[in-house]
Amino acid sequence: MGLYRTLRFRRRFGSKPLLPRNLEAMKTRKIFGISLSLILINMAAIMERADENLLPAVYKEVSEAFSAGPSDLGYLTFIRNFVQGLASPLAGVLVITYDRPTVLAMGTLCWALSTAAVGASHQFLQVAVWRAVNGFGLAIVIPALQSFIADSYLDAVRGTGFGLLNVVGTIGGIGGGVMATVMAGQRFWGIQGWRCAFIMMATLSALIGFLVFLFVIDPRKTIKTTRDTGEDSERNDLMDKGNFSSTSIWMESWTAMKAVIKVKTFQVIVLQGIVGSLPWTAMVFFTMWFELIGFDHNGAAALLSIFATGCAMGSLIGGLVADRMSHIYPHSGRVMCAQFSAFMGIPFSWFLLKVIPQSVSSYYTFAATLFLMGLTISWNGTAVNGPIFAEVVPAKHRTMIYAFDRAFEGSFSSFAAPMVGILSEKIYGYDPKSVDPNSGSVREAFALSRGLFTMMAVPFGLCCLFYTPLYLIFRRDRESARIASLKEAEMM
């Protein structure tokens, strides 16, 4: 009877075996789950970047509301980035105990709460405290987000994957910055517009965090299921016949920390990142600088949107170029892309801040320069650092390496914003009392531009130089990581 059914099946459908219906349904659900997870992860990236751009977009209004100068505003960015840097390793510990969607949801809800609280604050000290809480939430989210993307793409296209993440994140950054800048000059129900923007963004962030918690599937679980193994996640690697203790968590975390810090490639990228992230932190003053020149809220928002669009396109183009270069030059292609991108920051900073006349009549020159600048200086993180990190450590240590990268870079780069304010006020003569709330001040804009140039051109040059050792050590570290991964797979 069984043979008769088999022959009848083959006559009807041919000799090629078909998948059982339940297996087809499982594959369909898996594909749908992966797609939904990536959509929600990208939405979380959008909200994260939008949240980061909120305060810089309303620096001028916050300065007026709390009688704060550039150095005070710089300290707000310093506090958030410094706390974010110190707390980033916690993300690597949390993903051992919880899956990444849970960690992402926790961090998202934390930053949503702090964002709403900033909008409701009435004292400068309150804003500072809640900015610290905001940094804690971002410290949990960003490394988990980066390792999630690293696990979702293969080595050959990982630069493109990080580039796509940056594109959608930039959309959020543009939306958050434009929304806050446009709303800042208005009042809603008797409430200042910039406060309404913070509360609105907090509400949307909380909603996205809830959806991530409910529907996102960790890529590690998908990979394990595909291989038909019984392992669930890194957490199970610490379990011995059902026993799971906090001691084993901290021991595994400590082992991962030591393994990551010893990697020479990690040390080099962190070194360049410490100086390479300084210009990006200093750029939080761009909106304020344009408004001091005399641009209104809409004009300043448009210029920053053009710059952000250039950065988004540049990160994607950089990812594609770096992926292609890594095929041609497997051990040096990404490094060459990184040095090109870092070097381009020097001439563009000089032209933007020192050559273009600081006048509203230079709008189109500013726009073209900002777009081209964003197109060329935004390659490093998505095309180089993110993909290289994923190749020099075993997969289970990826969250930890991204977390420690944020810890070192975030802690040191946090000094850039207050340094811009201090240089502008103490050396170049910026006077907050001389600023006209309506028309700005050309003199103060000039002083701020000099502070910005100092904190951008020199760090870009050092960043380019510090990538050089990777030509020698990246190949060795990548081979070591591959051997370690193969040994772990054999043990399983």
UniProtKB/TrEMBL annotation:
Residues 37-479 form the Major facilitator superfamily (MFS) profile domain. PROSITE patterns: MFS. GO terms for cellular component: membrane. It is found in: Membrane. Keywords: Membrane, Transmembrane, Transmembrane helix, Transport. Its main location: membrane. It is a multi-pass membrane protein. The chain crosses the membrane at residues 73-96, 103-122, 128-150, 162-185, 197-217, 268-290, 302-322, 334-353, 365-390, 411-430, 450-474. GO terms for molecular function: transmembrane transporter activity. It holds the Pfam family MFS_1. This is Major facilitator superfamily (MFS) profile domain-containing protein. The lineage of its organism: Eukaryota, Viridiplantae, Streptophyta, Embryophyta, Tracheophyta.
